[in-house]
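Good day; I would like, with your permission, to put a structural problem before you. A protein sequence and the structure tokens that stand for its backbone fold form the material at issue. Thank you for your consideration; the sequence and its tokens are set out here:
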Amino acid sequence: MKTRIHTYSSQEPMLKVNAFIVEGADELVVVDTTLTRSDSLALRQQADALGKPVAGIILTHGHPDHVAGTYHVKQQQDIPVFAVPAVKQLMQDTEQVKHAQWSGMFGEEWIPQWSYPTELVNNGDQVRIGSMTFSVMDIGAGGDCDANSIWLLEDENKAAFVGDLLYKNNHTYMNDGGILRWLANLETLTPALKDFHSFYVGHGPVCDIRDFGKQREYFLRYCSAVLKNTNGTGIFDDNSRKQFEQVMLTAFPDYGCQFMVGLSADRVGKELTGIHQH
């Protein structure tokens, strides 16, 4: 049978994160695992409804909304969890901080125990999971955190699971990682991935290669607005922050995750003006 890709979009209203179930002839591969208790259990329920065992879990990057649900998707089964080493390292470095930061907000929906990658893979590896083969691209810090990877399914689907490299029709989280490295990755990866048909992203609908250009345009508009509204200083006051947010919301009126516009402004301003970040 042709490999089928099923999308699970979370019911958690703030981030609306995606996870994916790749259905092969006899098994399933889950790509990313959502944030909350309810969503991760619903993701596993959707997988179980397909009537095939989960042969593996892939984690594209280390942010909680993509890795926290692994504990419930595994359900204490001996399911291998695949990731590049930097993803596991970032999870280890940030787990306790994230628990402290977010557990109060999410309450019983917060998952207090993370399940870590068990199978570490490297850039350029071919990873066989059941009947499916994925090619791994470790793209480093050029994304919305310091540990990002792309997983390529090079069968007739020509599908790329890109995590948060692209945000389709959503404002972008830029408070971790680096905007300039991200722009460089988009530039480098566009020709490298031009033959892939579908790009499965962490937030928003399935993309195509044109969305690499749209993401670059968003970043350039964002960076320009940061500098213009701070008179080139990268430092906001209350008034300039409101003006900046209004510029971005007006430019992209239909985009979701509107709270992210202001959330990343200080970090981007510091990077663009070379202000030392601790």
Q: What stands out?
A: The mean pLDDT is 95. The domain at 4-214 is CATH 3.60.15.10 (Metallo-beta-lactamase; Chain A). The two ends are 52 Å apart (CA to CA).
